[in-house]
Amino acid sequence: MTERAADHLEAALEAAIRSVPGVTGLYRTGSGVAKLVDASAALLRGQQQRSPLVRVEHGTAGVTVTAAVGVDAAVSSVQVLELASAAVADAVTASQLALEQVHLTVVHLNGDSLRA
Questions:
Q1: For residues 93 and 87, what is the distance between their CA atoms, to the nearest angstrom?
Q2: How far apart are CA 9 and CA 106, in angstroms?
Q3: pLDDT tens, residue by residue, 28-67
Q4: Which of 91, 83, 82 is nearest to 54 (CA)?
Q5: Cβ–Cβ contacts within 10 Å for residue 113, how many?
Q6: pTM value > 0.85
Q7: Which residues have C-beta within 8 Å of that of residue 105, sequence separation ≥ 6?
């Protein structure tokens, strides 16, 4: 997959996840150490660091999609993740790729119910 095609897929996946009712945002995935290693490697290669909010890895059976999602506290996070997973599957299929795995993590809940 070319870098341009990868950028297009990442943008399509980000838009698909953001379109799911109850999703309040997307966050960078990976640990602080992993982000530092990625930034250092890009700097050494003389490349501008690309930091997509949705990570796509290509495997032998298809792509693995990883995203960290913010969810509205007023809705079921399980339901939001099920809808987001379906949106990811649709976007990958539309790109004529096979989906191997989807890893979605709720990292933030937004809503008035959290304020005491």
A1: 10
A2: 22
A3: 886 555 556 666 666 676 666 566 889 999 999 999 999 9
A4: 91
A5: 10
A6: no
A7: 29, 67, 68, 69
